[in-house]
Protein 1
Amino acid sequence: MAHKAQDGAADTSGPSWHPVTKKKAYEQVIAQVEEQIVARRLRVGDRLPAERELATMLGVSRAGVREAMRTLEAQGVVSADVGTDGGTFVTTMSSEAITRILRLHVHLSHFSVPEVLEARIPLERRSARLAASQASEEDLAKMREVLDEMADPATPRDRFNELDTQFHVLVAAAGHNRLVTELTTAIRETMTGPIMHSFDDEEDWHARSASLCAGHEAIFAAIEKGDALQAAEAVESHIRLAYEQLHYHSN
Amino acid sequence: MAHKAQDGAADTSGPSWHPVTKKKAYEQVIAQVEEQIVARRLRVGDRLPAERELATMLGVSRAGVREAMRTLEAQGVVSADVGTDGGTFVTTMSSEAITRILRLHVHLSHFSVPEVLEARIPLERRSARLAASQASEEDLAKMREVLDEMADPATPRDRFNELDTQFHVLVAAAGHNRLVTELTTAIRETMTGPIMHSFDDEEDWHARSASLCAGHEAIFAAIEKGDALQAAEAVESHIRLAYEQLHYHSN
């Protein structure tokens, strides 16, 4: 409505130019599918109209519809079933898909270390708090196993880095909140490369790994005794210290 | 290594079967491009090898390379330039792309209200804290304008909902941390549909909107005076109350 009024007003003040939308046919098809999903008119498990039907309804070519479907499939939004009952269905997007996209995004957008840090700390504080009240015996046993392997001096640096990520993911998962877990995991995973780099450059590996292990043990102890606030504080100190070490080694 | 040992052990206990990886050619091309990005061997602005060259190097068809590039383009990872200097370049992924993917993901994964709440609260607490120390006069002026329009009883419910989202996005943006801003925005935007639904059902709209406005005013006041802790507390109370009202109206 506001837009219409503006156009009307522009009549007396000369022509009003708008940038041309160069949206391709397949992009428009994607946009419409997304609109239906967000409006909850299309839900997981629903079958999309057939290619020919969709092309007619949207006024685009069948090739445009096909391209849109392939893109949505690659993004994990829909999946195609073959066979007599075949068709294209709305799917549950996998955690891996979103982790992958977030990871790429963090790399390509050149978020600074403080930016990543400021997003990571509140999420991991929340993960740790949730874990302190929700962790099962099994969750704790898995964390213990990872910590024991990290404490072994024979563990090589790349394996140590893998286990480090695993520990943070286990804490997040122990909170039993999938969205917090995925965001935490994606952001932690973006740091794997830079962390590995600084591990490789580390001259006093013994001191560095001992310091990281001590941080993890403090988090684990707080979660084990169910102390939510202490778990949150422990995870924040650990992350801040780890970033200082990382920063020190990147310079 | 562990895997090899297992294979060896299986020799005496019969054949060992592994699921066949049905990764399509274009998926493998995508995976390789991503690998280079995460390893920082491909950076924003870099040109990818030509289609023919990439197809030869990776041992896939040119059609497979083309499909991969289209998918990566749709995801905002690369962009194609035409003309004599044309080619496919690595781009900075736009915020809209990630917000869009997160929004779809939250819808399609059926995250529960408590799951979204537990992810939203720590992010918005952090946003409010950052805003309290970083907000410029201009940031504050924009928030004030949105709040004034929300306070006007003539503002229709759908516009109120839009302004509500805008206020939370402005707070996040005033913290000047792009990653926190994007995650906050994406998660807030997933709630727009359910919130609108409950607004439409609201019988006492006057009381509901007044309560939401009071919450926003408290957040704004804390940010304006630079009180980080109070801003965080105000945002958490506001979100929890808003969800209680939302939940009440969804049942």
Protein 2
Amino acid sequence: MSSNARNDVSEQQESAAKTGHRLSRRHLLLGGAAAGIGAAGAIGVDVVVKGGIGASAPQTVPLFSGTAAVPFFGVHQAGVDTEPQSRVTFVALNLLPEVDRAALRRMMRILTDDAARLTQGEAALADSEPELAVVPARLTVTFGFGPGLVAVAGGEAPGWLRPLPAFTIDRLQPEWNDGDLLLQIASDDPLTVAHATRMLLKDLRSFATVRWVQSGFRRAAGSEKPGTTMRNLFGQVDGTANPDVGTTDFDGLVWSQADNPGWLVGGTGFVLRRISMNLDKWDGLDRSGRESAIGRTLANGAPLTGTQEQDVPDFTATTPLGFPVIPEFSHLRRARSENTAQRIHRRGYNYDDAPTGAAVSNSGLLFACFQADVDAQFVPIQTRLDTLDLLNEWTTPIGSAVFAIPPGCTKNGYIGDTLF
Amino acid sequence: MSSNARNDVSEQQESAAKTGHRLSRRHLLLGGAAAGIGAAGAIGVDVVVKGGIGASAPQTVPLFSGTAAVPFFGVHQAGVDTEPQSRVTFVALNLLPEVDRAALRRMMRILTDDAARLTQGEAALADSEPELAVVPARLTVTFGFGPGLVAVAGGEAPGWLRPLPAFTIDRLQPEWNDGDLLLQIASDDPLTVAHATRMLLKDLRSFATVRWVQSGFRRAAGSEKPGTTMRNLFGQVDGTANPDVGTTDFDGLVWSQADNPGWLVGGTGFVLRRISMNLDKWDGLDRSGRESAIGRTLANGAPLTGTQEQDVPDFTATTPLGFPVIPEFSHLRRARSENTAQRIHRRGYNYDDAPTGAAVSNSGLLFACFQADVDAQFVPIQTRLDTLDLLNEWTTPIGSAVFAIPPGCTKNGYIGDTLF
């Protein structure tokens, strides 16, 4: 994820080597998951793995620990190809009218400095509660730029950096839309997310005001085998088709190449859709109805033509009566394209806010995804789902935002320095 | 915690015995913490502990795992003396007008049955998303009865089961007050809390409506050494003076004895105060000002007259200038009584909701505590804090609720069966 591997990662490699294990590139890509090993050693635990995690040879196990840290500096920002943490807070801000290009530069220097510290378990520069900073728990802070910020910076915006086209299924509530600056703050520890969010919002006091805050969750770190695809609140396995981190496939789909403005090379595009899920209505649907709507089994997420989650769906298979096994209207069929370039890297979270009135839930999905070109990758998928996707019966997009995620930076630079 | 130890606990003991470790009563009291060991085995990890957790002999380490389960049935309800989980949702409900004693009995039978299943990682009886039930992560569900429910049941209410006396510092917002029925749903996994909350609220559809929902968090399981006292969002170590679980001291302070109505013996009293914390204003205070306000160091929570968190404060110690080292107005001095019966078992959580307007935080403490007699234990402490506690400058109680927590039940009974 980063070419500037930090000291503690090297120490973990050394320590792993001593105990006869080796950290593969795959483990390093898992970031904090692998980093937990060193920390486990620190509290006096030897971990010996026999099999598991889909391999026959002995290997390290990602033991969760609060001291695990994901490198901040690197070619790309962290928080994109990082194995998703358990908790996230997305914050969008509006720049104050007086903020100009020079102020933006100061703002990003301050934010970069504090984010770099906090992600490594160090207090922010003016940290008023330094004791809350000591548990990074794989904290990542990822910055995104909206069209307004790029304009103030006088930079060239990629063509896709604008509100998404209006979809017929949308019932957008303005309070969840758009923004000039995005913070994605994610960690396996909710107190860490709260503290980092507060420190960064304090940095932003003289530059911007909060536009919206959206918090979400997945299973806690340690609840499941690492790499398990998340389930949403419908009980669906959600995100199976993601490209594999560390492959050229992933790199091509996610990281901006030269066809985007130069300042964005090594960055990516980000879409956040707040999707309300009507759990009460979903209750009225039986299991086979649910599986038809999705095109996958609920039990393990296998396509209806397969037995394992990762099986390739067979869209030509038919039932004895001649109907497609994976229905035309199913989410799986509508989301999938013949064009393999029309894919995205999903990194969503569930939300579950307090219900009001007679409803027993106020829940949904923070559908978050990364792709090099939003127009070429996300929009065609969403257009197909807009036209015909049975899941639309139970889901409603109520918020929408698009941001450009600038590349990472070196220790001497700051996030966004290619733009300013 | 329960005399009905479940099968998987026995299996863990057996498994622990095989590997040469023994689960002490203390470990059993830690519930899911210890239970993680069996689960670790299941995914192919051997854990060997060398020292740690404050003991010299080899012992088990509380390795977090989603499969860890806290027994549901027992003399007391779980979730009171259970080592606090990372996440909580408190829900208060209003009974529907048509609900009578017979309906209450049905309601509590249904809730008990589903809570018993869910806490053991089994689907609720009419679970629409059974796949979300498989990770209990130490889930506990604790039920509380407000005065309205006890009245409908025709039972005798303890004298303290009523709104707290009005304190001068209170700025209560009615939407956070009182209620007929309380659910405390806590787990180390946020998805588990969301699913259990939804299943139980579905059970309640024909009996009650939601009055308020308050969710909170502590550090994630695995972030810190088990038993570490939590920190609140002021950065304070919060809850040091708690009685030790499993001692006669704890039992006497927390579990109702014969001086409460008979149906409550083995139960306890519960107070939830929603305390808004003005982090912006707190920022204006330097470290020494903060430590004076609290009476403890921020670094490790030691009283200002000591060096370790658990040191007994010396209220007679004075500075060279003759002032008390622990100031008269400090929270520590005001909260502490000479009367050792005036103590409570705190089990609070942080909250951090989306800020509005120019504020950069909307945060505070879900101050939750258990005590056998609210009037004799909680009220005198709060009265002293109301009169003079410098912390009142930065904190405001905005919600308040009192519930009677009935005792636990056997497999053939249901929560509240001593009342009905």
